[in-house]
Amino acid sequence: MDTPTYTEYHPRWLRRRVSTYWWMQRGSYFAFILREVSSLSVAWFVVYLLMLVRAVTQGQASYLAFLEWSRQPLILSINIVSLGLVVFHAITWFKLAPQAMVVHFGGRRVPGSVIAGSNYGAWIVASVVVIWLLVGA
Amino acid sequence: MVVKRQLEPLLWLLFSAGGVFAALLMPSLLLLFGLAFPLGVLAPPSYEHLRAVLSHPFTLLVLFFLCTLSLFHWAHRFRYTLYDGLQIKHLNEVITVLCYGGAIIGSVAAAYLMLRLGMA
Lengths: 137, 120
What we know:
The complex is a heterodimer of chains A (137) and B (120).
Chain A: H1 27-58, H2 60-69, H3 73-100, E1 104-105, E2 108-109, H4 112-136
Antiparallel strand pairs in A: 1-2
Helix pairs in contact in A: 1-2, 1-3, 3-4
Chain B: H1 2-36, H2 47-55, H3 57-85, H4 92-119
Helix pairs in contact in B: 1-3, 3-4
């Protein structure tokens, strides 16, 4: 005896297709994707930094060769674009800090502007220390 | 699936810590080594001076955390960029392995270089 096969009724999902270029439709979407893409510059700079450190472990000749290599137009242009994106990352990251960090002091919530301000302050201090260590000292 | 769900907070923590490190240190370092020194705006540090600065234990520690955490920051964010931006969801597993695998390999390289610099 044949057992009849049943097909379960299943409604069709209502899912509108989203264009692959959805992030180009609005400025805020574009800024979001730009912030996400900044992670590529972060990764590139880690590679660049490790190459510099490796050259330094190998001796003076390798360090000078690295400096020479970094003058190439291709490397220079990658670094210019990366600097723009890394700065964009830093600004947006610190701007978001008050939303991610809720600090209470003396029973009151510390205002967001204070948290963002102290983050920007730390950024300035860190940058001054880096520049002083490498150029000033 | 359960492992994945338990890992997610840790991965987010690494992402977040990497974001702070990258934001604090990368703009100035990139400005110097990527633009100011190559373009001749500022004179690059001498080999002896740079080596001395880099070999200091504190610098080694900061650089190690900067490299590893920033790589995990990249891995986490880039994974979701591919997920949301390009909507290539069918390659989810491959992308996850490549992103975090890359971050782990980079971290090992960073640890090796910092140790070499510190011991020499």
